[in-house]
């Protein structure tokens, strides 16, 4: 389900009986949601959160997985990997708000987001090795980029779960906040962060995201070339002209995304 909020789109996961585990139906719904958001220029920020108390996403639906053949399992994991890539490829910034458990594929989903906010009540871990598996939806690639190779190996090899405070200390999340009585502290902090981003020049923000994402995949010289190409696309925008005019006129800029 998508909730629209003044330039902010909120993706709400709501599969309470299965703790938002990534079964076929939920995955298909998330695919449909990405299709809606990808080309919507009115959306400045996307927040992904849970509508189920105490859980962000419990990971893969192992009950469904147990009924799959080896071939079906391989195809479904490919679909999960493609879903995570689709989240990462959204042109606007994405924020995961983690109140409770984000395990296995649930943490991989959060890792596909640009930013992560956790409450003190959060529990995170790539626990696949405790189930005879290993992270197959991007976790082996995205976790090292957050916490470093050695620590990523430790977390994946042990399947250890960590809380919000430890996640902050190792760089897995951007912010950690004490949980409140309503159980939505991470969402409230994510919303505040999103509201900081919304007024900024949307094309510049999107080009910045492309430059970072693509530039970190290559050597620094190639990364600088990517940055130059992204900057060139921003030069002719009305928003760049508005930003300079607002600075000279000593007023707040009004960006229109053009």
Automatic annotation (TrEMBL):
Signal peptide: none annotated. It comes from the Eukaryota. Keywords: Lyase. The keyword Lyase applies. Belongs to the enoyl-CoA hydratase/isomerase family. This is Enoyl-CoA hydratase domain containing 2.
């Amino acid at each position: 389900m998508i909730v629209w909020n003044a330039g902010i789109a909120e993706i709400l996961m709501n599969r309470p009986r299965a703790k938002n585990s990534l079964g076929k139906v939920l995955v298909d719904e998330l695919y449909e949601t990405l299709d809606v958001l990808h080309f919507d220029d009115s959306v400045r920020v996307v927040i992904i959160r849970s509508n189920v108390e105490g859980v962000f996403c419990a990971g893969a639906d192992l009950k469904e997985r147990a009924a799959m053949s080896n071939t079906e399992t391989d195809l479904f994991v490919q679909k999960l990997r493609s879903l995570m890539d689709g989240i990462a490829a959204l042109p606007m910034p994405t924020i995961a708000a983690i109140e409770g458990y984000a395990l296995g594929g649930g943490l991989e989903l959060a890792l596909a987001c640009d930013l992560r906010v956790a409450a003190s009540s959060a529990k995170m871990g790539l626990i696949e090795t405790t189930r005879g598996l290993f992270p197959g939806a991007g976790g082996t690639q995205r976790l090292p980029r957050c916490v470093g190779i050695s620590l990523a190996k430790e977390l994946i090899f042990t399947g250890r779960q960590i809380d919000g405070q430890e996640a902050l200390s190792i760089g897995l999340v951007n912010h950690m906040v004490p949980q409140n009585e309503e159980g939505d502290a991470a969402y409230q902090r994510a919303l505040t962060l999103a509201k900081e981003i919304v007024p900024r020049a949307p094309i510049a923000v999107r080009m910045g995201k492309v430059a970072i994402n693509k530039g970190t995949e290559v050597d620094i010289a190639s990364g600088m070339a990517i940055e130059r190409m992204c900057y060139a696309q921003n030069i002719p925008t009305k928003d760049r002209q508005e930003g300079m005019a607002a600075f000279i006129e000593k007023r707040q800029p009004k960006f229109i995304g053009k």
